[in-house]
Write a structure and sequence with these properties.
2 domains; ten-stranded mixed beta sheet; tRNA pseudouridine synthase A; tRNA pseudouridine(38-40) synthase activity; PsdUridine_synth_TruA_C
Length: about 260
């Protein structure tokens, strides 16, 4: 039995998330269907984590067991011919038997993208949140640093969270601004990319963090409010849950060996 591991990108606009559901169209459904079409085998893939409806992935990782003799270098192309255009397998490798896409992950990085230009970009409207008003980006950059470290993120977890422990560690969190599409003599502020890397994330955690950072940018909250909100352990103290369409699972990091090969 082979343990095959793959990296997949997808635009989540047309899907009810990654993980199979009884009443929804999911990315997992299409991947498993494509594998069955290719090999004749029914498999259940294991992903590094689930993404919600409308959320995207650049570097989602999944693995599954297979008896197929198809050379590993042919898997990506073979699956892509059987997948919708908005799901693309980018890499495939064979991994040790005990490798598990979720449990073996060391850290994950999410990116949230806000278009802070005056007008929406019609070409990226499904993958960026357009913010109509001006934002204090410098204040947002100061605020995001308060998330780095080990904290109880109860204030930034969905009220429906089933986790018994909300303590998580964020290794890095920062904001980059791409102003290449800004018009001269306009109120355009560019495209704001927020990157967050951690050992794990709670349901809606990044989106709630982003909704809170946007309130900081709007002047509704101060950067120094973030430690107070964290300490409150109260979801009502944080900002709203930002729309899913701006969120992308950017990267999943494994051991040094895996990082070199996938």
């Amino acid at each position: 039995m082979r343990n095959l591991c793959m990296k997949v990108s997808y635009e989540g606009t047309n899907y009810n998330g990654f993980q199979t559901q009884t009443d929804g169209r999911t990315v997992q459904d299409h991947l498993e269907k494509a594998i069955k079409m290719l090999t004749g085998d029914e498999v259940k893939i294991i992903a590094s984590g689930r993404t919600d409806a409308g959320v995207h992935a650049y570097g989602q990782v999944f693995n599954f067991q297979s008896l197929s003799a198809i050379p590993v270098e042919r898997w990506a192309m073979a699956l892509n011919t059987r997948l919708p255009a908005d799901i693309v397998v980018r890499e495939a490798i064979e991994v040790p038997e005990l490798f598990h896409s979720r449990r073996s992950a060391k850290r994950k990085t999410y990116r949230y993208t806000v278009n802070a230009n005056q007008f929406i970009d019609v070409f990226t409207r499904h993958t960026q949140l357009h913010h109509h008003g001006r934002l204090d980006i410098a204040a947002m950059q100061r605020a995001i640093k308060h998330f780095i470290g080990t904290h109880d993120f109860t204030s930034f977890a969905s009220r429906n969270s089933a986790k018994t422990c909300h303590v998580r560690t964020l290794f890095d969190a920062y904001i980059e601004v791409d102003d290449s599409m800004c018009r001269s003599a306009s109120r355009d502020q560019g495209v704001i990319h927020t990157y967050v890397t951690g050992s794990g994330f709670l349901q809606h955690m990044v989106r709630i963090m982003m909704g809170t950072l946007l309130e900081v940018g709007e002047g509704k909250k101060s950067p120094d409010d973030i430690p107070v909100i964290l300490a409150a352990l109260d979801r009502t103290q944080a900002g709203p849950t930002a729309e899913g369409k701006g969120l992308t699972l950017w990267d999943v990091d494994y051991s040094d060996h895996m990082k070199k090969t996938l």
